[in-house]
Amino acid sequence: MGRGGDRRRAQAYDVELGMAVSLAQQGDEDGFATAYRLIHPGLLGYLRGLVGNDAEDVAADAWLEIARDLRRFRGDGAGFRGWTATIARHRALDHLRKQKRRPRTSLIEQDVLELPGRADTVDAALESLSTQWALGQLRELPPDQAEAVLLRVVVGLEGPAAARVLGKRPGAVRTASYRGLKRLAEQLTSGSGPHRAADTARGTVKDET
User: Fold this and answer.
1) Residues 6 or more apart in contact with residue 201 via CB below 8 angstroms
2) I need a surface site. Which of 56, 70, 191, 204 has the fewest CB within 10 A?
3) For the purposes of burial, counting CB atoms within 10 Å of the CB of 23, is it exposed (0-12), middle (13-18) or buried (19 or more)?
4) Are the C-beta atoms of 61 and 26 separated by less than 8 Å?
5) How far apart are CA 58 and CA 35, in angstroms?
6) For position 95, what pLDDT does the model report?
7) How far is CA 177 from CA 54, 83, 180, 182, in A?
8) Do residues 196 and 203 lie in contact, with contact meaning Cβ atoms separated by under 8 Å?
């Protein structure tokens, strides 16, 4: 299915998420459980990219804050993804400051790469890569590029939403994402990565321009 179908799936995903969040804000436990089910895999994947094996603990802290402040949230499903990613990032940076380490991409797992509801051809590029190759290449990206790619592909945030999470201008985040994807595509076309994803990655980089 083409990008139009992907967008429709993403919209349906965000509609379901928005309804679940609205119910959760009214104290509905099933609504909160649905929101958790839809958000947690991507959030955990993003945190794995920042804090590695400590992601589960940081995610638990993030969800405590999300649950505590849920009634203050205003927005739709897409906005909720950005809001929860911002909270998770703050918790990750707090964790890293305590350990005196800089954020770096450390893990992406195949189940995270297969999350529903992403509308971008970026998905096709990374979904076509072997997991181990993708892990190695993302570790080599500069932190700003790696995090921009993580937010686009794992969390599913578009440029402006990712920029809000990172506290940067949308143009800077688009540039970081483009450079990260371009570097991945160069590795693919150089013969050092899986050949079957090369054409997809080239199309992805073209879409980013």
Assistant:
1) 125, 128, 181, 184, 185, 188, 189
2) 191
3) middle
4) no
5) 18
6) 92
7) 25, 20, 5, 8
8) no
3-state secondary structure of 40: helix
CA angle 136, 149, 59 (to 5 degrees): 85
Per-residue pLDDT tens digits for 3-12: 555 566 667 7
Exposed / middle / buried, residue 81 (Cβ in 10 Å: 0-12, 13-18, 19+): buried
Phi, then psi, of 169 in degrees rounded to 5:
-75, 145
What gap in Å lies between CA 29 and CA 19, rounded to an integer? 13
Q: Which of 91, 89, 93 is nearest to 102 (CA)?
A: 93
* Distance (Å, whole) CA 149 – CA 199: 19
pTM score of the predicted model: 0.70
CB atoms within 10 A of CB 155: 26
